[in-house]
C-alpha cells in the first residue's frame, strides 16, 4: 500500500539535512509539507501534536511533519507568535524563518538539496550564520547557536561576527530573561553532553548571555586565584579548564555540570581577601541551590554539584586530614549508601586538580588513596560483631572503631609506600 506521504509535497529539513551533508548521523528526521492544510493532514491520518504550530506525527513512522509556515513575533516570550501555515506558504518562506543557514536547507525525495540561503557554502566554510533578522524573534536561539558551536567545534566551526553581534544585542536587550528555566536547562544539558561543552559557556560569556541566564558563573571571569595553585589565575578560565578535564574523564552530564559549579562561591569573595577564597566551598552551596530550582535541574545533577562544591578541598587536602576526619568525610559523602556518586565525586575533584595551567598531566593521588580506603573500609561488616553478641548501637560503635583503626593503619602504610613523608 502506498504511503500517505506520497499524496503530499514533503521535504526533509533542518538538522537531518545538515548532518547528512556533514556525514554525521542525525537523531531526528523532520519534514516540512508544502501546499497542504490541517484538514488534509488529519484526513490522511496524521496525528496533530503541535499546540501552537501545525505539527503532525506520521501514524506509522512517528516522524514529524510540519506544514510550511511563516511566523511573526507578536509579544514577549516563546508563545507570542502569529503563525501562518496556509497552503500558499512556500518552502523558501518556511526556510527563511529558521535560525542558521546550515539549518535552513531542505532535501526533496530525490535527494536534491534546496538551499536558498547558502547553507552549503557556510557548511563548507564552517560558519554558523543566522538566516535573517527573524533570528532575534526567538531568544532561545542564542543558546542554540552556543550549543551548535560546542557540538561542531571539532569540525572547526566558528560563529559569524554578524551573528555574534546579533546574539549580543539580543542578550543585552534582556529578552533572555523571558526564557523558561526548563528550556535553558534543556539546551545546557544537551551542550554538556557534547564533545566541547566549554565552548557553549564561552560563547554565552562572550555574547553577554551568561550574565542573564547564570550570573554567578559569568561573575567568575576576572576573579583571581593564587598563582602557585592556579597559574591560569582567572576563576572563569579555570572553570572551563576543569570542564574540559571532566570531559576527558567521563561522558556523564552530572559530572560535567558539577565541574562547572564547583567554584561558584568564589564569585562572592570579598576583594580584601583575594586572591585566596576562604569559605568559598560553603558560599557556593546556596548559589547552586538557587540555580537548580530556577532551571529545574534534576536532583542527581544538583546533589553531585553540592557535594563537589562543599568537599572538593577536603579531598585535595586528604593527606593532611586526621583519620577520624577522613571517616567523617566519607560519612558526609554518604559513600556507604551511594558508592556511584562517590566515584563521580572523585572524578570531579580530579578534574578540578588537573584543570589548571600546567597541571594537566599531574598525578592526583588523593583520588586513588580515598577510593582504596573506601574499598577497604567497605569490607568491614556487622557480622562478626553480631556473632560476638553485640546489639544495636554497640554494633555501630564497633564498626566505627574498626573503620578508624583500619584507616589509621592504611594511611600510614600508603604514605610510606609512596614516599610522601616529607
Ligand atoms: N528555535 C529554533 C528551533 C528550531 N529551528 C529550526 O527547526 C529545525 C529543527 O529543530 P531541532 O529539531 O530543535 O534542531 P536540529 O537542527 O534538528 O538540531 P539537533 O541535531 O540538535 O536536534 C532546526 O534545524 C531549525 O531549522 C529554528 O529555526 N529555531
From TrEMBL:
Binding-site residues, ATP: 15, 18, 98, 144, 147
Cofactor(s) the record lists: Mg(2+); Ni(2+)
The HD domain, residue ranges: 235-336
One Gene Ontology term from the biological process aspect of the record: RNA repair
Residues that coordinate or bind CTP: 15, 18, 98, 144, 147
Record text on cofactor binding: Magnesium is required for nucleotidyltransferase activity. Nickel for phosphatase activity.
Entry's Gene Ontology molecular function annotations: ATP binding; CCA tRNA nucleotidyltransferase activity; CCACCA tRNA nucleotidyltransferase activity; cyclic-nucleotide phosphodiesterase activity; magnesium ion binding; phosphatase activity; tRNA binding
Keywords (A to Z) from UniProt: ATP-binding, Hydrolase, Magnesium, Metal-binding, Multifunctional enzyme, Nickel, Nucleotide-binding, Nucleotidyltransferase, RNA repair, RNA-binding, Transferase, tRNA processing
Pfam families, A to Z: HD, PolyA_pol, PolyA_pol_RNAbd
Family: Belongs to the tRNA nucleotidyltransferase/poly(A) polymerase family. Bacterial CCA-adding enzyme type 1 subfamily.
Record note on quaternary structure: Monomer. Can also form homodimers and oligomers.
Further comment found in the protein's record: A single active site specifically recognizes both ATP and CTP and is responsible for their addition.
Protein name listed in UniProt: Multifunctional CCA protein
Phylogenetic lineage: Bacteria, Pseudomonadati, Pseudomonadota, Gammaproteobacteria, Alteromonadales
Amino acid at each position: 500500500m502506498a504511503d500517505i506521504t506520497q499524496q503530499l509535497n514533503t521535504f526533509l529539513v533542518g538538522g537531518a539535512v545538515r548532518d547528512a551533508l556533514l556525514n554525521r548521523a542525525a537523531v531526528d528526521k523532520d519534514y516540512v509539507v508544502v501546499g497542504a492544510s490541517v484538514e488534509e493532514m488529519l484526513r490522511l491520518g496524521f496525528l496533530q501534536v503541535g499546540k501552537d504550530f501545525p505539527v503532525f506525527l506520521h501514524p506509522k513512522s512517528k516522524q514529524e511533519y510540519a506544514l510550511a509556515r511563516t511566523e511573526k513575533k507578536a509579544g514577549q516570550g516563546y508563545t507570542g507568535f502569529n503563525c501562518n501555515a496556509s497552503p500558499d506558504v512556500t518552502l523558501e518562506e518556511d526556510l527563511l524563518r529558521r535560525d542558521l543557514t546550515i539549518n535552513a536547507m531542505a532535501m526533496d525525495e530525490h535527494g536534491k538539496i534546496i538551499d536558498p540561503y547558502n547553507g552549503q557554502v557556510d557548511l563548507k566554510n564552517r560558519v554558523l550564520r543566522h538566516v535573517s533578522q527573524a533570528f532575534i524573534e526567538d531568544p532561545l536561539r542564542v543558546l542554540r547557536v552556543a550549543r551548535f558551536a560546542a557540538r561542531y567545534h571539532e569540525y572547526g566551526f566558528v560563529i559569524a561576527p554578524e551573528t555574534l553581534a546579533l546574539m549580543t544585542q539580543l542578550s543585552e536587550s534582556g529578552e533572555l530573561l523571558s526564557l523558561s528555566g526548563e528550556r535553558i536547562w534543556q539546551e545546557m544539558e544537551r551542550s554538556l553532553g557534547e564533545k566541547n561543552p566549554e565552548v557553549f559557556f564561552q560563547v554565552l560569556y562572550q555574547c553577554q548571555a551568561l550574565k542573564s541566564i547564570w550570573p554567578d558563573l559569568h561573575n567568575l571571569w576576572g576573579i583571581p586565584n593564587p598563582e602557585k595553585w592556579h597559574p591560569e589565575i582567572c576563576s572563569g578560565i579555570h572553570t572551563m579548564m576543569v570542564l574540559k578535564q571532566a570531559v576527558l574523564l567521563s561522558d556523564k552530564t552530572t559530572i560535567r555540570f558539577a565541574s562547572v559549579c564547583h567554584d561558584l562561591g568564589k564569585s562572592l569573595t570579598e576583594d580584601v581577601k583575594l586572591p585566596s577564597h576562604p569559605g568559598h566551598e560553603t558560599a557556593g552551596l546556596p548559589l547552586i541551590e538557587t540555580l537548580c530550582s530556577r532551571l529545574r535541574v534534576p536532583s542527581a545533577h544538583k546533589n553531585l554539584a553540592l557535594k563537589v562544591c562543599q568537599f572538593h578541598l577536603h579531598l585535595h587536602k586528604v593527606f593532611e586530614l586526621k583519620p577520624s576526619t577522613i571517616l567523617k568525610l566519607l560519612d558526609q559523602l554518604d559513600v556507604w549508601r551511594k558508592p556511584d556518586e562517590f566515584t563521580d565525586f572523585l572524578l570531579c575533584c580530579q578534574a578540578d586538580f588537573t584543570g589548571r595551567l600546567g597541571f594537566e598531566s599531574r598525578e592526583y593521588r588523593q583520588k586513588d588513596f580515598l577510593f582504596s580506603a573506601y574499598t577497604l573500609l567497605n569490607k568491614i561488616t556487622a557480622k562478626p560483631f553480631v556473632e560476638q553478641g553485640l546489639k544495636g548501637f554497640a554494633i555501630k560503635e564497633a564498626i566505627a572503631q574498626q573503620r578508624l583503626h583500619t584507616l589509621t593503619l592504611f594511611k600510614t602504610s600508603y604514605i610510606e609506600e609512596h614516599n610522601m613523608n616529607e
